């Protein structure tokens, strides 16, 4: 896609710090560096979000995540954990509409990154939960 910022980064039309690249993906530092080493992993094929992946693309992209995470962690003895985030759609905080995975190294509980989750435990009955699960199951692709 000609006007996509990540497609431009993939084509090296925009300066970037690349840490890994192969025929299918590119991993480069996020310009925001939420924490030192914050890396984005993007498929070279332009897909907007996870809903556009086929099995082949998913294997090519996601099989590299553990290797990249281990390399980032090994690069700095102060890294004690890592958040791996993949947002889909504006409502889910996706800001660039080219699918990407954030690898965010964690150094401490106050390293300028946080995630909060609501707790809806007990708000749905067992029957409601089972109905949700059954609805999802009938939509699974074999």
UniProtKB/TrEMBL annotation:
Q: Which Pfam families match?
A: HIT
For the keyword Hydrolase, the answer is: yes
Q: Which Gene3D superfamilies does the protein's record reference? A: HIT-like (3.30.428.10)
Q: Where is the active site?
A: 100 (tele-amp-histidine intermediate)
User: Sorted alphabetically, which CDD domains does this protein's record hold?
Assistant: HINT_subgroup
Q: Does the keyword Iron-sulfur apply?
A: no
What's a single GO MF annotation on this record?
Answer: hydrolase activity
Q: Which PROSITE patterns match?
A: HIT_1, HIT_2
- What residue stretches are annotated with the HIT domain? 5-113
- Residue ranges the record marks as coiled coil: none
Q: Which UniProt keywords apply?
A: Hydrolase
Name the GO terms of the biological process aspect: nucleotide metabolic process
Q: Where is this motif: Histidine triad motif?
A: 98-102
The record's listing under InterPro entries reads: HINT (IPR039384), Histidine_triad_CS (IPR019808), Histidine_triad_HIT (IPR001310), HIT-like (IPR011146), HIT-like_sf (IPR036265)
What is the protein's name according to its record?
A: Diadenosine polyphosphate hydrolase
* Organism per entry: Companilactobacillus versmoldensis DSM 14857 = KCTC 3814
């Amino acid at each position: 896609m000609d006007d996509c910022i990540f497609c431009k980064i993939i084509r090296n039309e925009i300066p970037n710090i690349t840490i890994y690249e192969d025929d299918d993906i590119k991993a480069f530092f996020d310009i925001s560096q939420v924490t030192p080493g914050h890396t984005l992993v993007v498929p070279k094929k332009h897909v907007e979000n996870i809903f556009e992946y086929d099995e082949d693309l998913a294997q090519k992209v996601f099989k590299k995540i553990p290797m990249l995470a281990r390399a980032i962690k090994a690069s700095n003895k102060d890294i004690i954990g890592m958040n791996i985030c993949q947002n889909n759609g504006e409502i889910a905080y996706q800001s660039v509409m080219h699918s990407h995975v954030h690898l965010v190294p964690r150094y401490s509980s106050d390293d300028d990154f946080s995630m909060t989750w609501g707790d809806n435990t007990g708000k749905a009955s067992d029957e409601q939960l089972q109905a949700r699960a059954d609805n999802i199951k009938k939509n699974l692709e074999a």
